[in-house]
Amino acid sequence: MVAKDWLFSQLECQTQQRVERARHNAQCMDSAGGRDLRRASLGWKFFVLVLIGACGIYMCFARVNQRNFQQFSSTQEVLENSFCRTPSNLSLSDFAQHFPRPLTYQRGICICTPVHYFVIFSMQRSGSGWFETLLNSHPNISSHGEIFIVKDRRQNFTTISHTLDKLYNLDWFSSSAKNECTAAVGLKWMLNQGAMDYHTEIAAYLRKRGISVLFLIRRNTLRRLISILANAYDRERPIGGTHVSHVHSKEQAKRLASYKPTVNVKYLNQNLERYEEISNNALQAFNVTRLLVIFYEDLVKEPQKLMEVQEFLGVPPRKLESRQVKIHTGPLSGLITNREEVYRALQATKFEGFLREDDP
Ligand SMILES: *[C@@H]1O[C@H](CO)[C@@H](O)[C@H](O)[C@H]1NC(C)=O
Ligand SMILES: *[C@@H]1O[C@H](CO)[C@@H](O)[C@H](O)[C@H]1NC(C)=O
Ligand SMILES: *[C@@H]1O[C@H](CO)[C@@H](O)[C@H](O)[C@H]1NC(C)=O
Ligand SMILES: *[C@@H]1O[C@H](CO)[C@@H](O)[C@H](O)[C@H]1NC(C)=O
Prior knowledge:
By secondary structure, the chain is of the alpha/beta class. Helix content is about 50%, strand content about 10%.
């Protein structure tokens, strides 16, 4: 009869909440009494203990997994996160600080030096090559160039994210790679190199991983167009024997600028509109990230702008230098064959300002 009572009370106990089980079991045991029963309920105690333990382990794993997928894209970052993320290692900043652990080498004494991830978005012939050489003249900045010029790397978002994972883990090697004390790492990404095709996924990736965006735009899209035409011509019939997109001497620049393209005015307005549209779409697409818009013209005119860029990247500011020389300089009339025609096409349109002679 006592055993029956015990069984009954146990059944009742079973219906209680999981968390309360241990306490209830203790109560049940007290009311039941008897040596045999105590031994039997010991089994129950053990069972409940295992249950609670299993529950705890499960919850623990669930949390780790959740963190894994919500905040980090690779186990690598979970690792780096736990190792260096102490208050003494984190400086005051409004951007995410990372502590990558490269697979191919050790970061040595800089293992706990925070790294800032960035990307430069731009369009061809907007001065991004020159801008990047300036950044790479800084000892703590590694900008690896147009890595997505290679089609295989931008087949789909999977290949894109794998490429970026490797780059941001400091496992990418190019002439721009610095030493283990790199404090800012990134790339130059032309909008037509898959950046807009997968903009939703890429924006989410940038945001998730705390990657800052530098957006380099050329205001005077007419001069950009002239640069495109001249560059395309030189690609076909290299003026200096071999085709070059960027030059390092005044003579070379002069030689390239000796070719004066003729601007097709029929589609001129449309072309300029199109550039503006692409820029605006991209700005909107990547607006979810920490973003700095830089105009090429400002960089040329005000060296102070470069200080702002370095501040944005969180590196100690210094004077940056580039060996690249500007190809097309001076008034429009010296750059194209049909200046009058272009003037007529753009007068009284919103692009009229591009005709100004002093524009860089
Ligand atoms: C960063 O943290 C590590 C481990 O806690 C410590 O050894 C190191 O001195 C710290 N570095 C800095 C720059 O504070
Ligand atoms: C920049 O690089 C130099 C040379 O490698 C290193 O000594 C210094 O600690 C780095 N500075 C930062 C802020 O990472
Ligand atoms: C992405 O492209 C790679 C390389 O072509 C291919 O192996 C992979 O299956 C593709 N993944 C998806 C999700 O389409
Ligand atoms: C980005 O979005 C904010 C509002 O969310 C807006 O105020 C800002 O103008 C946008 N910037 C660009 C460049 O589109």
